[in-house]
Design goal:
alpha/beta; Rossmann fold; 3-stranded parallel beta sheet; 16% strand; globular; lyase; EC 4.2.1.10
């Protein structure tokens, strides 16, 4: 995942990421996203806030533009819309 984020630099205008369990503890993914110059949307199929306590914290949240959660697969379409809107600003 870290290598893919680094490889995206200069090649894509934005990243949509569902980091799964890495959301809660992967500082390596956090650091890779922090170094990415474009927009980043974090997506979760479920609502982490409605799950176990340890899932309530995302170490990625401080380095992404926003988070979409709880909408299942629709979250990815919403994330694409968000990236398009951010790119037009």
């Amino acid at each position: 995942m870290v290598n893919a984020i680094h490889a995206a630099k200069g090649k894509v205008d934005g990243i949509i990421i569902n980091a799964g369990a890495f959301t809660h503890y992967s500082w390596a993914v956090h650091d890779a996203l922090k170094s990415y110059p474009g927009n980043v949307i974090e997506v979760h199929l479920s609502n982490p806030g409605a799950r176990e306590q340890f899932r309530h914290v995302s170490v990625l949240a401080p380095v992404v533009n926003g988070t979409i959660s709880g909408f299942g697969g629709l979250g990815y379409a919403l994330a694409v819309d968000a990236l398009v809107e951010l790119a037009s600003q």
